[in-house]
Task: structure prediction
Amino acid sequence: MQTLTVHLVQVFSLLSSKLKAMKSAERLAEIDNDADDVLHRMIDETSAEGSKSLLGHASVVFGLSFSPDRLAMMKTMVFF
Result:
């Protein structure tokens, strides 16, 4: 039997603005990808908190970017 290890990273806002989550996959599917404010529309405004927990990360996230077609997200991590 294997032991399941869960990694948790707590992310805190360093600004006065709060951290917000992305909308659910079902709600994201309803968004017009060609809209000028598509990145703003992807955010769940009701989810604002001073910190967020990332489950499953085993290392530090150094960067985050979106593909030009706004359909994919990439994170930059370093594994030690």
